[in-house]
């Protein structure tokens, strides 16, 4: 094939090219424009200028060319269309310098197109701005037939390839119509249809399929018609007005196009895939004005451009936009769902070891048409992407409203139930550290509060052994014991006191409950007792609620789970429930071996006290600064992509830790957490976090861009300037029911009777009288 | 074992180039060569087409969702050299703004973190990156980084606004980070920052040996370091990390695949990276405790199978 020895090459014609044409055997190319008219020979390596037709003294407008055609039969004859309406016949074999053979001045206005008949080589057809087409006989030098379409301009005329239909040609005009003519019948149009919205700039007959006619125009559309039925079969939308289209020879579905504006590239489309060019030539720097395929060769395309260059393009050098585009889309949703779009739906043969095995590698054109994508969503079955844990944790974590120990315990439980044992461990460690060892108070941890508190620890001996036993188990050693002991002292006083208030009236029950709590409980709980002891030993905070005993029930480190685990877990942590339950557990407790132990405890509360206080003094250890460890733990979780844990711990620990961590870090954690909560639409939780956060950039978040609109309660007009005077009513509204002055700050309002006023006035009033100060007789209720 | 797989009939007539879920993961936008953008509701495992956005005059390469605080806004870019910003009002989508100041196909769009306002970065085949932003009064303005990548820019991604070592202003308040990363046909990954209202190159990361196809800055959820993932036609995915010290990026090849890698996507917390390659597979990668990237699953959607590849690959 000739293309094999050709190459992509170009040549500067030194003038903007409006049109190019090639001779019959594609050895010569003519480039013509307003200021250029040259013939080049097409060599293997380059274009060589052979002839400059724009010579002579009087270069009139007939030299300024819009379109040019090469005679299909006589290689020396060319025809050009000039801007002044002239159709010029050139004979390059003339011996004079001036090669103009003849000038037809038949058209009144610019001629847009000239074209020779393929077989009748003396026949030249022209289409002009004046709305007429003329069929010239260049031998007789006269107009044979004239075709008129009225007032609109003819933009293009093209003969149908004559092996398909000898006498047929088509014309396109500025009003968007395409007309099909028989050149023997100038009096009537064979077929007519409106092809485009706006001017049609170019038409082209398919070289092999007579019914297939392509049109294109200013509406940026290339349309392919069945010319027999005048039916649209394909269309391509381009990004700019189309100036020229040419079917690719010897190919059924390919058509090349170039644009009038914007886009200087030449696109070759497969009409079956109208969205993306099959190939693109981007060599020209300015818009391409003319494209011509080499005769009967689909691999070579010639083009001329306003950048003054003519090009020979080789198809194999074309850019393939389809190869560059991204054939896949991918995203992960907040819920961990992956969406993936790709071109490959289902490769049954695909195995993990290799790629699908094709019998035959599909060609580029077949591959080009495989342009469908499949979109799927799927979620990863493992937890790695699922964010359920995050949502559940966010919903269930308690950040405030309970004693620290409760919060930590609760959160540890939440983490446990979600199977996040490491996080649970961290919460428990925090409990260990903070609830046994409050850095803010001088006194640190203490063991078995419940024992001293209500049951009273029997003998110091008993107690210390117990403590030791536990500490061994816990592995914390004597440190805890020593720290624990001083706590005994203070807590004994406080909690004991508070206990008494409660227990006064229910002393009996309480004793039972104490027994139950203390260690006893049902036999099964005996095991738990150690657990409980251990836990309370580690965890007690100043409030030292007895429910702590119950917490260890859930610890997986227990030797075995108590039968009543669930019941005890679901138990509310309130004292009174304990009390009510205690008889039962007390009964069970009687059978346990532990009962023996507890009884003595209960009896000796007073005696144990002084002895216990002595102990810790002897074993005082220096205070342990564990804050850095806590901070490290929090940072670790943040680093492990679990900012939730860090942020929640930050909030729960609050003052205990906040001065120790860099403010920026804290802010980052909190903001990140709030942002994440927003993504899961957990806005109320996010708001709670904001409320509980102290760095001002965070805590002010929920005060930004919040506007409360107030309307006048008389005329319903929105109050613009202030909350107490209406512009329309020209009156002060909502005066205080007591002082009858406008309320400029907080207005306290009874929802029952709608009266109210200054907050302190109303407070004062209601402290004396429950009825409404306005005298309406309503017993005002304020919450 | 097998994950729930939902095949969505998009009715796109040509190849789909991007599929993006919105901030809450309830809406899915797809774009295709057929010049359309389709929006689906994906609530409760059901997908329903809610909108067809027609307006591009060529294939649409990418879509991006804005933060919901600005409303339901999509930006799209395409072969027609345009970036279109679409907004939904009362269920109908309309063009909010069309940016057409690129000289070639626009390949990538990304919305900046919401802290920076309604700001959009676009990377184009003309080699430039545009930063398009809403001035707040309904009009739009743009800044351009010319010659960002010779031959063309293929991908842009913004740094998270909240990041370690952020600059502090006079009052000690943290300034939102204003940085973005881009990848291009010059095989480079570049980081850009805004300085005195001009965008300047902050860092040039060399490591790929072919066109960089996608870059993705990991969300930094309380992390002390910045992470960027990039993928390329050289079949490799590279993870770039910065531990907070000035401009010191280290690279690590996550894996060399058998085919071109097209897209990357970080999970919401940034601990897992999804990689989509030319073999039409998605694989998920996670850094283990030793700092190595491990494939935690290969998803071959055809069979819906998960093959646990436990092969740890270090550079």
TrEMBL record, chain A:
A GO-annotated cellular component: cytosol
Record region (Disordered): 455-507, 580-604
Pfam families: WD40 (PF00400)
SMART domains assigned: WD40
UniProt keyword terms in alphabetical order: Repeat, WD repeat
Residue ranges, compositional bias (Low complexity): 585-599
Keyword Repeat annotated: yes
Top-rank taxon: Eukaryota
InterPro entries in alphabetical order: WD40/YVTN_repeat-like_dom_sf, WD40_repeat_dom_sf, WD40_rpt, WDR24
Keyword Repeat: yes
Renumbered ranges of WD repeats: 104-146, 193-226
UniProt GO BP: cellular response to amino acid starvation; positive regulation of macroautophagy; positive regulation of TORC1 signaling
PROSITE patterns from the UniProt entry: WD_REPEATS_2, WD_REPEATS_REGION
Composition bias type Basic and acidic residues, residue spans: 460-475
Protein family according to the UniProt entry: Belongs to the WD repeat WDR24 family.
Entry protein name: GATOR2 complex protein WDR24
Organism: Potamilus streckersoni
From TrEMBL, chain B:
Chief localization: other
An annotated Gene Ontology molecular function: structural molecule activity
Domain of life: Eukaryota
UniProt WD repeat ranges: 53-87, 99-131, 205-240
Signal peptide: none
InterPro entries: Sec13/Seh1_fam, WD40/YVTN_repeat-like_dom_sf, WD40_repeat_dom_sf, WD40_rpt
Gene Ontology CC: one annotated term: lysosome
Record localization: Lysosome; Nucleus, Nuclear pore complex
Any single GO BP term: protein exit from endoplasmic reticulum
Record keywords: Lysosome, mRNA transport, Nuclear pore complex, Nucleus, Protein transport, Repeat, Translocation, Transport, WD repeat
Family: Belongs to the WD repeat SEC13 family.
Protein name from the UniProt record: Protein SEC13 homolog
Record organism: Potamilus streckersoni
